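Hi P.,

Sorry for the delay on this. The queue was packed all week, but I finally got your sequence through. Input first:
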Amino acid sequence: MFRKSLTILVGHFGSGKTEVAVNAAMGMARDGERVALADLDVVKPYFRSREAADALARVGVDLVAPEGDLATADLPILLPRVRGLCTGFSGRVVMDVGGDENGARILGALSDLLQMADHDLILVVNFRRPFTPDPESAVAMAREIEQVSRLRMTGVFSNTHLMDRTTREVVEEGLQMARRTAGMLGVPVVGVGVEAGREQDLAPDNPGCGVLSLRRVVQPPIEGPRVPRSGPLFVLR
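Then the structure:
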């Protein structure tokens, strides 16, 4: 599913991109890999990878994010250490990046290093959110990110859901729209996200890609991070 040494996840507010990034990084760490998660999301003041710091630390994920007074700042803060991750980190790196112009600009500032790195740029899509109601809007967002970041999309991750009201039809419909989006971009669908315990919402032979079982980890700072229950994070088919 996520096979490159550097995986960059981008997506609009509500796409679930941060939960995908956190769960993917934790899954890699549980598989015995050395993992760093770089929180470069300057869009959302609440749902960020840094809010899962304790849960990430428990499984050995190295979180790179603004600290102290800057931890909740809505500023395009580029940590010097992030550049080091692009070139000198001996492990897997996951980058959680916002899907608006500010997020793309951060990637643009790193593009000289990213273009030389073994990386994937993955668009996370949830077609039950207003910013991406259809493949055409998802493609438009992807093209804007590509233009500003000077990078090309390499894959699409389907994460269509309605939280506790998600049904098999919602997941299946989202996967079909992700396939259309990927076809328009000329890239593959690399995976689909399903809430842990609800993998049955996918027909057995339908995905044609990796399946990532998602456990809700990221919570607003006022609530604190929710520690995931024990059990596997990845279900590969």
